[in-house]
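To the wet lab folks,

You asked to see what we're planning to order before we commit. Fair enough. Below is the target structure as tokens, and below that is the sequence we designed to fit it. If anything looks off to you, flag it before the synthesis order goes out.
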């Protein structure tokens, strides 16, 4: 009698990406509870870096995400995903840069803060395009990339009005990017220590 068992070999970087996302959204949730006005004023996530009452959860959100991005990068050593290693390292540095350049400090610091933010989101979008191509235009990857793109466009449009959904657009962007990355890491082949190539998801045939 033959039976098939579906086994999932989770890429080790995935858990750290999930941990980073949990840090980001937990910190933002606390910020939103303390200062709910940040949900409608168009200062985005960075709004919470301007107040003593929210600076700690805001720092937790950014630094927690940055730390686990570094941890994820440490496990992205296979040739098939090595570009992600450099990207996640850059994400961590850019997030730390955002925290170190609060908008209230001065206009030059605020401008530098915006450069860090724009670079972060642009790099994530470029990585998403690379992943879609790398996954041979899988419809799941395309849907997530489109959601990410639409959220990015919405965030850009919300920069001008006094009130809007800039923060929510940024959060949707980050959710879609993380989901796309995790999906890619479950599909893309990785190299084992013995040198064999295996897919993250595989079907194993058992005889008994």
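Sequence we intend to order:
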């Amino acid at each position: 009698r033959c039976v098939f068992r579906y086994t999932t070999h989770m890429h080790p970087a995935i858990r750290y990406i999930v941990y980073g996302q949990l840090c980001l959204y937990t910190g933002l949730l606390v910020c939103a509870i303390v200062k709910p006005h940040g949900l409608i004023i168009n200062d985005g996530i960075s709004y919470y870096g301007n107040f003593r009452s929210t600076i700690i959860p805001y720092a937790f959100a950014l630094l927690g995400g940055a730390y686990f991005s570094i941890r994820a990068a440490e496990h992205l050593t296979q040739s098939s995903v090595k570009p992600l290693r450099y990207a996640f390292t850059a994400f961590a540095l850019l997030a730390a840069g955002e925290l170190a350049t609060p908008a209230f400090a001065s206009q030059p610091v605020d401008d530098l803060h915006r450069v860090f933010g724009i670079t972060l989101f642009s790099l994530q979008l470029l990585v998403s395009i690379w992943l879609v191509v790398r996954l041979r235009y899988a419809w799941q990857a395309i849907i997530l990339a489109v959601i990410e793109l639409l959220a990015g466009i919405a965030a850009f449009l919300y920069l001008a009005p006094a009130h809007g959904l800039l923060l929510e657009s940024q959060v949707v962007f980050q959710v879609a990017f993380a989901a796309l990355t995790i999906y890619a890491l479950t599909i893309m082949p990785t190299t084992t220590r013995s040198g064999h190539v295996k897919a993250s998801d595989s079907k194993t045939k058992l005889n008994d």
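Structural context that might help your review: The two ends are 6 Å apart (CA to CA). The beta strands are 2-8, 190-191, 197-198, 201-207.

Thanks,
Computational group
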